[in-house]
């Protein structure tokens, strides 16, 4: 076990703590920091050994590449071989912010960071602490989501402590993540941009900027070859089984009672919109209002993590709208359910 140092935002105003963070990164160590999407587990993106430490700490397969975080838009030129017109338009419109662009990498970026790929994922976050940490480090930070591989993503300081206290060197407490879902990932290496992971920046928003359609590979169920290595691994899964229930809430209530009658000793939990909370007798985790997708996104991973704290053996989740931000929300839920969808 390491002696993990916990810092608050105000600590970063002090020079001694700034130097501590800088030194840790330059020594190839791990620093967890908040971003506007989710918490990230960061290390020097230019140091192959530091990248290896991230994979080891997360238990992440090393062919699943890391996102390189920068604090200055023009730094994208330092780590890429070329930047398409589409990429330029998207970064001008959405950086700093929750958008990751896949670009051809140059020799400065080690293959350990890109999981052996010739492309690199780059994002300029807009969270002030994230930007400050990158600036203090003086190098770009490779930072995947700060969760043990396969578990729901960390969106609260407590989630980070649960997974990494005693494992990483420094954890910076930034409170609850504002958005709660990881960034949108778009491949802009070819003529047509390809959406690989939906997020807060929606496909529609990007098409408005580019004035042309982009293709969408984000909901493809993984079979053999995948464009983004992250697509082929288990994600976001609580310990119990998770089923998505696709149908009107009244039918879900009937299904719930029928299942409970047949399995009286099973711990069944429900995750649903706040308006439907009272439709179920017990063990319900409300996600947020039907009319507030931001609230639902913000609470999603906390709800999934609560299922383990409760000891749920079966989690029934009500299928939500997939309009707008709903595409990103449903993308995470479908994966959490391991593609198990019950149609009613
Ligand atoms: O919001 C976020 O993006 C957070 C915060 C910390 O910035 N980070 C994050 O990282 O979610 P991670 O590692 O959990 O997800 C990165 C995703 C993975 O699905 C990975 O496969 C994909 O981006 N990716 C990274 N580099 C890629 C590349 N060169 N080509 C295709 N996909 C790539
Ligand atoms: Mg992740």
Please describe what this structure looks like.
The protein has 344 residues and is an alpha/beta fold. Helices cover 31% and strands 19% of the residues. The chain has ten helices and 16 strands. The strands form two sheets. An eleven-stranded mixed β-sheet has the order 1-8-2-3-7-4-6-5-9-10-11, sandwiched between helices. β9 and β10 form a beta hairpin. α9 runs parallel beside α10. The protein is globular, with a radius of gyration of 20 Å. The structure holds threonylcarbamoyladenylate (TXA) and magnesium ion (MG). The site of threonylcarbamoyladenylate (TXA) has 28 residues, from β5, β6 and β10.
Q: What tags apply to this protein structure?
A:
binds magnesium ion; 5-stranded parallel β-sheet; 31% helix; globular; 16 strands; alpha/beta; 10 helices; 11-stranded mixed β-sheet
